Each structure stands twice: as C-alpha cells, then as structure tokens.
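Dissemination and training. As part of the outreach component of the grant, students in the summer workshop were shown how a complex can be specified as a set of sequence lines and then modelled as a single object. The example used during the hands-on session is reproduced here so that future cohorts can follow it. Participants entered these lines:
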Amino acid sequence: MKKFFAIVFSSMLLLTGCAGSQEENEINQENNNQSNQSSAELEESSSEDIVATDQYGRGAQSDGQDTNSTEEVVRELSEDSDAIIIYFSRSGNTENLVKMMQDQTNADALELTLDEPYPADYDETVERADEERESENFPEINTEMPDFSQYDHIYLGYQTWSMTLSNPMISFLEVNGEALDGKTIYPFSTNAGYGEGDSIERIQEMLPNSTVEESFSVEDEDATSSQDELEDWLAGQ
Ligand SMILES: Cc1cc2nc3c(=O)[nH]c(=O)nc-3n(C[C@H](O)[C@H](O)[C@H](O)COP(=O)(O)O)c2cc1C
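and obtained this result:
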C-alpha cells in the first residue's frame, strides 16, 4: 500500500512539478545561492534567537544535529507540565515555530537529534532522504526520551519531505508511537510552499490509539511572520 502511495505520489510530483523539475531547480538554485553565503553571514544570522528570514530551510546550513549548527540542542523538561513539544528541525524553520510556541504555552520542549546528522548541503540531504525512504531504513534518533506518561498533550513538529512526514519524525513515531497511546496530538510543520502533503494521514496511521487534532502548517519563509495564525491555532486547541 505504501509503495502504491509512493508511486502515485511521485507521479503527482512530476505532474505538478513539485520536488520535480522546474520548481526543484528553482529551490536548488536558491539553496546554492544561500549555501554560497560566507560563514560570517551565517554566523551572524544564527546568533539571533530566530533564524533570519533569508535562511529558509531549503538551503540553510545545518549539521542536522541542531539548528544552524551553532545552537544548543533544546531539551526543556519540567516535572509538572502536561504538554510537550517534540520536534526535529534540520535547518531552523520548524524550530522558529517552536520558539514562538514556547512564548505562548507552558509546554516542555524536546528537540530530536540523529546518530548521523544530515549533511549541511541540501542536495546531499535530499539524496540521502530519498534513499532512506525507498529502503524504509529511517535514521536513528539518539535523543534520550523522557517518560511520556506525564504528558497528555503532544505538539509534534516536523517538516514536509517528499510531500510526506520527514524521515526523522517517521523514525521517532516508529520507535515511540506506543508511548503516545491515548494522548492528544497537535501536528505542526513547515514546508517550501507545497503544504503538508499526506503527513497527517501518516501520523494517524502510525498513532492509531491517539487523537490527532487539527494541524498547523506554514511555508518556511513565512514561519517567522505567522505569529497570529499560530496563536489562533493554539487558541483553538
Ligand atoms: C529532503 C528534503 C525534502 C523536502 N521536500 C519538500 C517537499 O516535498 N515539499 C515541500 O514543500 N518542501 C520540501 N522541503 C522543504 C522543507 O520542508 C522546508 O524547507 C522546511 O521548512 C524545513 O524545515 P526545517 O528548517 O525545520 O528543517 C524539503 C526539504 C528537504 C531537506
């Protein structure tokens, strides 16, 4: 069934041009331009709390371990919060949403990191991600998991990859899905303009015993200006 979806999906991508020909070339061109920025420029932008808006995830440098290579891994756990934000962010966009959400909720926050971080280079990341998806051999997460029994509400943050859930979030759900049984899930994500794809269906499929609420998804370059929409989404939960 998954293979069927993958074939239909790839055909859709080819038809729409998304992650396919012209759009991909445009995105790649943009990545290359961004990748050519000097390290001083990158350092300057990553020293901000929020990644500068010219550093969209399509091309922003990242060691995959943490946003833009220079920041500490986020792990903010309390003893009494009943909500937690669990997220992966290769290049900072999804983490930008997390920072905005932390101002608006009392949720704990847990950033997922990988045994083998993705390359900073976008094209190499796409190549590796494609191989992982085709072989269904998703990356190992090396984050030490807290006891999730404390939490009733789970904000799940990820990014669209190949019009579905990104590989690290698939890994997380494969290993930890059962620990989220009975909990309420609030998916949020960023993308390069093509939306969240079938990621919500994928989450529902992987978390059959959880309640999946309405999601929030925003284009990477609009993430930092989506405060109002984000607030509305949080208020509606
Ligand atoms: C491997 C890979 C595949 C991607 N595939 C898509 C896609 O199919 N559709 C889309 O809109 N954006 C796609 N993107 C763009 C990311 O979803 C977008 O830049 C996102 O904001 C990155 O989030 P992050 O900075 O938190 O990692 C892809 C990015 C990568 C690295």
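The radius of gyration is 17 Å. Students were then asked to discuss how this feature might be tested experimentally.
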